[in-house]
Amino acid sequence: MVKKSGTAQAAADTDTEHLPSTNGSQHEMHEFLRDFDDTVQCLSPDEVYLLSMGAVLTSGVKTAVMTVKHSLMLRAGYVSLEKYGVLNPIPQDGYDALYTKALALVASGEAIPNAAIISSLPTTPTAADLPDEHVVAPDRIALVDIKLKATILKCITSKGRRSHYAGVVGPSGVALLIQMATDSKLVDSKFAQSTHSRRIKAQIAEVMRAKLTQVSLEEFDEIKDSLETLNGQLLDKDDRLSERQRSEHYIRLVHGLKSAGLKNSLTLDLRVNAVVHGDLQNTINAIARVLSAEMADIEIDRLEDASNRALVADVRDPRKTHLDKSKPPKDPCPHCGSMKHWAKDCWKLSLIHI
User: Fold this and answer.
1) Which residues pair with residue 176 across a beta bridge?
2) 263 plus 124 within the same structural domain
3) Both 203 and 172 in a single domain?
4) Could you tell me the residue range of the domain that residue 241 belongs to?
5) DSSP string, 170-202
6) How far apart are CA 233 and CA 86, in angstroms?
């Protein structure tokens, strides 16, 4: 049995049958890239990791990275915060700009995840700063990147357009995604946008009109997930809602319930946890905590009300006492022989207590 190499195995793991197809037309690029992003899990694990982290897992239990700066950003968890993927391709500069951006944000005092770790990073890292679990190996990453390009080209049905995209950029699949995104914007103009952009924006507007009908974390998650998904499908970053706009919208959803207690609880949670205005993820976490606590209180109140009603109930079921006084007795009273009253209501019983 011939053992496959890592890159050969990566190609074999790619499920091209369930990937979308396109004729390569610029008018279809918006739709194709969105569908390709939806089915990205059909790619091999190496290709998926490359698209999201820009790195490749090696057989030596190490992670191949592009540069030392890439390694340090990856270890600090800052790369995952950028949410790279098909619609937001990984940078092609060795993560130099991302590294500079992270250091600048920490220096300005802005609250970002793992700020303490990032603040300790050197301004100009060297090979000595490379973690033991990482190895700088851009050649290994390039092999997976080449396989990614081959996978994308298989999705193009038109032979002419496939040949065009095969030669328009180098061997990089990530570079091909960037080129496709650029080509898709050529059908837009200052006065008209593509059908894809108009449709997504219309759907976003519809989702933003939705309101919470009750205190429900499930309902909030449904609205939030729909908005996040649609916003990510807009290829032009200038068209997307910013994190500040989305966090403000989610806060307005809670305020829309018209509950002073809920509004005060959210304000207090944001203040206690020092959530910066516009911090999307921490704002979502605060809303989840407040809604969960309110739902728990509502359920406790409901159970207490049900328990109190059970304790104060004093209405006897005549079927359980076998004395249905709405009907005349069937047997004579054992005390006086009358058929006009029940035995317990007999006048002779009152004589016993005299």
Assistant:
1) none
2) no
3) no
4) 195-308
5) -S-HHHHHHHHHHHHHTT--SS---HHHHHHHH
6) 10
Instruction: Assess whether 61 and 160 both reside in one domain.
Output: yes
Judge whether 123 lies within some domain.
yes
Helices (H), 63-133: 68-75, 78-81, 96-107, 115-119
Q: Is residue 352 part of a domain?
A: no
DSSP code of 156? B
Helix (H, G, I), strand (E, B) or coil at 109: coil
CB atoms closer than 10 angstroms to residue 174: 22
Who's near 37: CB < 8 A, 6+ residues apart?
A: 85, 86, 87, 232, 233
Encode the chain (354 residues) as per-residue pLDDT tens digits: 344 444 445 445 666 788 999 998 887 888 899 889 989 999 999 999 999 999 999 877 899 999 999 999 999 989 998 889 998 999 999 899 999 999 998 888 877 778 888 989 999 999 999 999 999 999 999 999 999 999 999 999 999 889 999 988 889 999 999 999 888 876 655 445 667 678 888 899 999 999 999 999 999 999 999 999 888 877 677 788 988 999 999 999 999 999 998 999 999 999 999 888 888 989 999 999 999 999 988 888 888 777 766 555 555 555 555 555 556 667 777 766 666 666 666 756 655 544
73 in any annotated domain: yes
Contact 334, 343 (CB under 8 A): yes
The tokens describing 112, both together, are 């970002």
Cα dist. 183→7, 235, 268, 281, 292 in Å? 29, 11, 47, 32, 45
- Shared-domain flag, residues 162 and 272: no
In one letter, which amino acid is 330? K
Domain assignment present for residue 324? The answer is no
